[in-house]
Specification:
- The protein has one domain: SOR catalytic domain (Immunoglobulin-like, Sandwich), CATH 2.60.40.730.
- Helix content is 9%, strand content 45%.
- A 5-stranded mixed beta sheet has the order 1-8-7-4-5, with no helix packed on it. A 3-stranded antiparallel beta sheet has the order 2-3-6, with no helix packed on it.
Amino acid sequence: MDEASRVKIQVAQDPRNLTDLEQKHVPQILLADNFVRIKIGQISHPMEEEHYIVWVEFYADNELAGQRDFQPGDFPEAQFNKPDSGASKLKAVINCNLHGRWQNEISI
């Protein structure tokens, strides 16, 4: 078993009623005409030396379509080209240095 398959990825337990922790970590996937914006949390995630988002990965139908690394002080948001593959599902996975990996997906 490789490391990626052992890492727990967290999701919102009730997407309509997020906990405080989920509000800062569950990635929001926002569609526009030609791009997809991934916003980290409904409430902006801290980006301090002690607590920050390390990276975000963007998937179209479970295939990696983009990744962005972050540093403390960066704005916790990323923009990717909208896939032209006719994808039916978009997914974002983020990694917080304190609270681990979080995921959200939408159907399009």
